[in-house]
Every structure is written in structure tokens, then in C-alpha cells.
Amino acid sequence: MTHDPVAEVPPLSLPGGGTTDRSYDLHFRAATAALQRCDYNLAAAEYTHCVQLDPSRAEAFARRGDVWKVLGRYDVAIADYSQYMRVDPRSEAVVFGRGQLFAFLDRHKDAVADFDTAIEINPANAAAYLSRGQSRARFGDAPGAAADFGRAIELAPGNGVAYLERGTALIDLQQYKEAIGDLTRAVQLNPFLGAAVARRAEAHGKLGQYELAAADLSEALRLDPLNPQLYAIRGDIHLRLKSVEAALQDYAEALRLAPGNPDLLARRGMVCLEAKRYDEAAADLTEVLRLVPGKPEWLRARGEARLQKGEPDLALADFSEAARKAPNYGPAYLGQARVCISRGDFGMAIPYLDRAAELAPNLAEVFYQRARCHLNQDRAALAEIDAARAIELTPDDPAPRQLRAEIAIRGERYEEAYDDLANLVRLTPNDPAVFLLRGKLEFRRKRLDAAVQDLTITLKMNPSLTEALAERATVFRAQRRHYDALNDLISAVHQNPKYSAEYLVQRGIVHGSQGEYNRAIADFLVALQLDPENKGAAKGKELVSQLRDQQGPHGPAQGADDQHAEAERVLSGDAGGPKRVTHWKSPVQPRGVPGGSVPGGGGQRLGAAAARLPQTARVPRTSRIPKPKPRPIEAPAEVVPDEEPVVVAYDPSFEAEGAVALADPDVTVEREPRTARTALKARKPVSTKLKDKPDTRKPAPTRSEKSAPTRPAAPALEPLSTKLAAPPLKPAGFPNKTATSQALRPKKKAAKAKQSFWKGLFKPADDEEESKLRKYGKFAVIPIGLLAGAFTLYNALGLGEPSLDDIIKKGKTFSVPVAATVTAEQLWSESEKDSRKYATKYVEVSGAVRKVISEPRKNAVVLESPNANFGVEVDFNTKDDVQAIKAGDKVVMTGEVQPKQANANLSLRDGRVKPKQ
User: Which superkingdom (predicted)?
Assistant: First the structure.
């Protein structure tokens, strides 16, 4: 048993009432000598003898208290100091010493009381002010601590520690600039005070001066190179400087100095998560959770990493476990909601977000995500309230502000939306999505020039943003800058073929405004084939048909400027023309707008029904469409650039001028560049019934021929020359619009033309060049044969309705080793006892089918279990896997067991059906 000298000390006698003994002085001198030799145990024993001999002489208690403090026995030292203060309560040294011991034992309120007494005894005691300030700072009284440190500096201006402590207190008071001044002075007074350099780095970091913070941390590491926490802090600073590799190197060094430290490992995982290195983050956090399982913050972080990796099931398991470990941890419910949002289950996410908002009312992400969910559920008023709350919590976050602007645009509250977009431009001046949204808003506000300016800025920032091209084309159309609109749509189609219909509508407007009504109608018809719901194409076709009926198939007469202007005005939409087509609907995402490929990368093939895009130089831009100039009949035989080759379906109500009208809508004909002579030959009918008749049409005179004598009509030309590389522009049997138009019946003639056309393809032709189309027409049976062969192969391979045998055959090819073979009842019972026994293992389970789930996003079979409400749920990849299984069937299946959740089915993923032995 350990001998305790303090237990033998008799009660303290009052001064004058004790005994005096010569041996007391001998023991006291022996204790003092032992203390000088640093023999603290002997000194404590000698002072104990003194106390036993004369308890009234209190100096023995004070000296013995000093010895106990050196030996680390602080409680006994406090007891001796207290005994001394019963005799002499105004001893400054004893009171100050006991206060220091109280502070060391984290009894800061007791320490402050002793320091108050010491300062009362000696108001000039700088150490007492410094110590009292340190104790006040420990229990949260930062203003009082800063005042004490200031007084200590006044009394001892050369004390670097006092400047260090006041700088630290100012950091707690968020007075970072003043803190940097004090910490700099501390380093000047003591260049080896590494704590001051580290604290100054913290203040620089709070002010966003990350370069200065990194420099200070490097200096602190020079003074203390074995401090892993300093490496970790510098790693955080490097992450703020976007130096991910440097940050990870610092964390690697920190973990080298402190291997297996879970806090450092978790911090590195968080750094990887913020740097979007989700695989490394998940690996670090998995190791941390192996060392210290069940910490909610680390579970939530790993769930976030798994969600970003595209593993929503594992992420949901982590978030659910975090919520189970800490039911009042709001971010865990936010994580569960984000998993639901990633699956498109916005309605299911709202209850989780409600719970998260209740537990974490200052977490802006909760309100932003709930606003997105409400907007998806067409609850715009609730969405706007949540977006406003998110903006209030994080005024500099652009995502909720952009969402609120989109909500205001939907509600046609354009001025409110414009205010938010103006702030967005200030917050994110380099974000093209913001300028795109403001350009759309300016168009709705009918400020067309401002809309063009914003959309042009968008395209300068991101030239491949196809949506901006389409939107600017819409604004150009409203400004009647039709060639500019057409050029933008050409670039848009090069990047994304979905704008093909709108491109054809715009080209139809250009043709219609020039009086080329047949070409305009052809463009509108092809646009309707690509997009039957395109209102602009339907309205444009109707208006152009009316204009053609009023002014004739060739457009306005020569010099009819007012008629050209009227056609342009009508087709621009000012008189009931095609309404603006909305190309973009906001996905209500936090950031970013999807873009396309880089312009100039080559046009994409649009299909048999789409127009082929021109690859030549762009048309000169002008705000007014020039009037077309008719070509003279007798022109020199120089090459004239052809119009874009188009593909149209035959409509008996019109013939496209200069285009190819075909009986089969899927035949594409390309034309070579025409000379003036071959252009005239192209007007020659190919019909054998009319080939001997001359062309009775009179060409319109050019401007230079207005005053000249009228030239005689051109003589009839021979049929198409065999020098043309392309097939005849019109197949045999197709009617000519200049022949006997009064005798034509459109529907009957079209049917006859189609019949004679296909018959003519398979007849032997005398002319070798003219027989090419007929010769190659025989190959039309090839796609039909391929289609029939594919259908036969489809049935032969059993790709139709699957049977249970087919599904079992799939199960036979499953090669993953099975860890156990159990019945559904056994698996359920074992998992109830120990949820980890079969977790993440493949098992073979047999039982009766309770229910079959076949939904668009879920295909599963639920087997019977001892629980009346829940069973063993086996998830399959496709609907075919469960289509032949019915409730009540006896089946054997394999799958990977997931961790057992309370009040839920026991889930197995990657299900396969195995044959029952």
C-alpha cells in the first residue's frame, strides 16, 4: 500500500498555538537542501515532517505544494495551497499558483477567481492578467480574454505570448486584420514562436488570402517539421488554391507521421470528395469506418462519394445508417432525399427534405433541393419560398438565385427575374448559362437588341452551346434578319440534328420572303415530316399557300417591292405568322446548360427525310432580304452554284421549283452544279407524251431588258444530255406543270405517275444513262430481305415473349460462386438475427413467390417469409426476367444479399432464376 504523507498531517493549528521544536528547523533545512538537489521525493518527506511537528507554521504547506506541483500531483498541491491560505489568504504567490493549477485541470472558473484575487492584491501583475485571459478564453469569454491580454501587453509590452494570445482571441471575435497585426508582432518578438505563425495562417485563410496562409504554414512546418496537423491544415489551404495534388501530398505526409490516424484519414477523404475524386474518397472513408465504425459524419461523406460515383443503392445504405446512428443529424436525411432526386422520385424526396429542414434549419442546400422538388411537382409558390430561404442563407450561391429567376419567368414576372439575373451576372460573370437565361428573358420582354447582345456573349464564352444559337436565331427572326437566323440554325444543326425542323422552317421563311413559294412550301412540308407538331411549319405552309394563290406560283411580279415587303412581314410573324417555337425548357438544375459539339466539325446525317445542309460560305448578313433577280434565257455557259439539295415528299398541290418531286419520299437525289444551258434543260419535261412539244413558257425579262425589244421565245430543246452525272430530274410518266394543266386531276395523276415510275424502273432502257435509276432500283429488295431475315432470326432466337424455361437458362449461365444455399424462410430468420451474416454475399434461395413487381424502374420477385408484411425481394435487371413468373410458383434464385433494413423487404440484387433440383 502506498504511503501518503498528507494523510498523516494533523489539523492545522492557529498561529501561536503550536509547539516549537528544534527538530522542525532541521527538517525544514534538509527539505530545502533536497529541493535544491532536485530530490523532490526527499523534499516532500522532509516538509511532511515539518507539518507534523508544527502545523501552525504554514510555510511548510506552501513549499510542499510546490514540490507536489513539480511531481505532477496537482490535487494534493491544491490541498496544501488551500491549507496555507487558511493561515495567509493574501499571499499573492500562493493564490496565483493555485489558480494556475486550477487552469491546468480545466477548472477555469475556479482559476479566474484566484486570478481575480491575485490582481486585487497586485494590480500590476502582468502574468495574472495573461493567465486570467487564457482561462476566460477557454470557457468562451473571448471579449474578456482580449481585454485581459491587452492589459498584460500594457504591463509587459515585450511578451510575445501575450500578443499571440490576443491575436487568437481576435480570431475568435472575427477581427482577422487586427489579429494578423498582433500575431505579426508576436513573431517579431519571438521568431521561433511557431504557434503564432500557424495562427496567422488561419487568419489569412479566413480572409481568403490563401497564398499568404500557405506561406505561413510552410514557415510553421520549418519550425515544427514533425507536426502532422500542420501538414493537414496546409493541405486544406492547397485545396482552396485548386492545387489538388499538393493537397493530397500534404495529407500523405501527415499520415506518414501519424499512420492510422482516423481523423487525418477522414480529412483526406473529405479533400478527395471536394476535389471530385470520388473513388479515392470512398476508399479512405471506408478505411476510416473500419477503424471507427458508425460515425454519422463519415457515413454521410461516404454516401455522398458513392452517390457521385453512380452507386445510389450503396449511398442510400450509408445515409440511412447515418440517420439511424444519429436520428437528429439533418444532413443524413438530405442525403436520402438526394438519392431519391437522382432517381427522379421528387415526390418521395420531399418528406426527407422536410425532416432535414426541421433538424438543420440553416442548411441552405436543404431548401434549394426542396425548391427543385416542389417546382417539379408544379408547386411554384412553395418552390419560390424555399428558393428565397436558400438565398437568404447563402446570398453568394448562384444556384438558388437562378432557380428563383426561372420560377419568376414561368410566372411572367419578368422584372423580378431580371433583378435576380443581374445579381447572377455579378456573382458569376463567366457563366454562359446565366447570359443565356437573361437573353431569353430579354426576348420575352421584347428587348430584342439586348437579347441578341446577351446571346452573343453566351456564344463567345461557349461557341458549342447549341441552344444559344437556336435562341439567337429566334430573336433574329423577330427582327426580320432572316439570313442571320438561317446561319445560326445551320450551325445549330451541325452540332445537334434536333434543330433540323426549325432550320427548314427558317429556310422556308427565306424562300417565301423572296417570293419562291414552291420552295418555301417544300421546306415547310419536310419540317412537318420531321416534327408533325411544329406549329411554325404548319402556319408557314398555310400562309405561303395563300400568298401563292394570290400572286401566282412564281411570286410577285418584277419590281413589286411592296408585295415582297408584305410577304416578308407576314412570314416574320407580325400578321399571324409562325409562332416562336420554344427550344429550351429549364431542367431546374443547380448549374450548367448542356451543350453540343464544336461548330465546323461537319454536318451530321439527318436521315432520308431531312434536308442536306450547305457546306459553302455563309450568306452575307443583311437586315433586309434582297429581291431575287431572274436569270436571262441566253446566259453564258458558266457554272452557277446550285441551291441546297433537298428531299421532299410528293404533294399534288404543288411542285417545288428547282427541287425534285419524287413519288417515293425516301429517295434522295443530289444535283450537280448547273450551267445556264443545263438549267434550261432541267425545265424540259421528260414525259414521252410531251417531248415533241415546244416549251411555250415565256421567261421574265431582266432589269436590263425593260427597254429592249422583246426576244423571240427559245426553241424547244432536246431531252437531257447524257453528260449529266445525276439521274433525270423527273422520272418517266411524271406530269409537267406547263403542259395541259387544266386536264390534270391531281390525285389520279399522282397515282398514275407513281405506278408508271416504279414500272419504268424495271423495264430495259435503250439509253444507258437513263437506265441507271431503273437498274439500281432493283436493289430496293435488299432492305426488305434484311428486314424479313431479321424478323425470322428474332423468332428463332427466342427473343419474343420469354418463358420460365428461358429465364432458367439464363440462370444456368450465371458463374458467380454461391456462398450458401438456403430457403427464403431461413434467409429471413438468419438476417433478422445477424444482418451482416449474408450481407454482400451471393446466395441461392428457394421458396414460393408471394408477389411479382414489374414496373418501369423496378423488376423484382418477392418470396414468402415468416413476416406477413415483408419478404425476400430479388431484384432483376429487365422486365423479361420476371415476365413468366407468377405468384405461387416454386422457384430457386440467386442474388447478392443487401444489408437488412428495418421494416422493409430483405433485398437481393443481380437476381437469376436457377433450375429447381
Answer: Bacteria
The SS3 call for residue 338 is helix
- pLDDT averaged over every residue in the chain: 75
Q: Which residue has the cell 438565385?
A: 401
| Alpha helices for 572-709 (secondary structure H) | 676-682
Contact present, 581 and 474 (Cβ < 8 Å): yes
> Measuring CA to CA, which residue among 517, 472, 511 is closest to residue 490?
472
Q: Please answer whether residues 597 and 535 qualify as being in contact, where contact means their C-beta atoms are separated by less than 8 angstroms.
A: no
pLDDT in tens, 201-243: 999 999 999 999 999 999 999 999 999 999 999 999 998 898 8
Average pLDDT on 520-544 reads: 90
Q: Which amino acid is at 832?
A: E
Alpha helices for 496-611 (secondary structure H): 500-513, 517-530, 535-551, 561-571
DSSP letters, 133-169, are HHHHHHTT-HHHHHHHHHHHHHH-TT-HHHHHHHHHH
pLDDT of the residue at 554: 56
**Block residue for cell numbers 430457386:** 892
Domains of the chain: 1-89 (1.25.40.10), 496-576+644-649 (no CATH), 662-692+718-734+743-800 (no CATH), 804-914 (2.40.50.140)
Give the whole-angstrom CA distance, residue 658 versus residue 153: 95
Judge contact between 466 and 492, C-beta under 8 A. Answer: yes
Measured CA to CA, the distance from residue 466 to residue 596 in angstroms comes to 6
DSSP-assigned beta bridge partners for residue 908: 874, 897
Question: At 851, which amino acid appears?
Answer: K
Contact residues for 404 (Cβ-Cβ < 8 A; gap 6+): 371, 384, 387, 388, 391, 420
State how far Cα 527 lies from the chain centre.
Answer: 34
Rounded Cα distance, 849 and 177, in Å: 71
Stated pTM of the model: 0.50
- Distance in angstroms (rounded) separating the CA atoms of residues 784 and 664: 15
H/E element, 855: strand 842-855
**Nearest CA-CA partner of 61 in 36, 34, 93:** 93
Question: Binning pLDDT at 50, 70 and 90, where does residue 55 land?
Answer: confident
Cβ-proximal residues to 284 (8 Å cutoff; 6+ apart), any chain: 265, 266, 268, 269, 272
Distance CA 716, CA 735 (A): 18
Cell of 487: 446561319
Report the amino acid identity of residue 133.
G
Backbone angles phi, psi at 635, to 5 degrees: -105, 150
Residue type, 604: Q
| 627 to 362, 496, 557, 701: CA distances (angstroms) | 64, 31, 11, 15
| Torsion on CA atoms 397, 398, 399, 402, rounded to nearest 10 | 140
The pLDDT tens digits for 283-320 are 999 999 999 998 999 999 999 999 999 999 999 999 99
Comparison of pLDDT for 659 and 791, the residue scoring more: 791
3-state DSSP assignment of residue 639: strand
Give how far the C-alpha of residue 810 lies from the chain's centroid of Cα atoms, to the nearest Å: 37
Q: What length is written for the chain? A: 917
**Nearest Cα residue to 437 out of 413, 471, 476:** 471
CA distance linking residue 858 with residue 671, whole number of Å: 52
Of 239, 230, 170, 240, the C-alpha closest to 194 is 230
Min mean pLDDT across 462-476, 550-564, 650-664, 702-716 is at: 650-664
197 against 785, higher pLDDT: 197
Predicted local confidence at residue 692, as pLDDT: 42
**Helix, strand, coil distribution of the chain in percent, nearest 5:** 55, 5, 40
Chain center to CA of 170: 38
pLDDT on residue 669: 34
- Does residue 274 surpass a pLDDT of 60? yes
Strands 842-855 and 674-675: unpaired
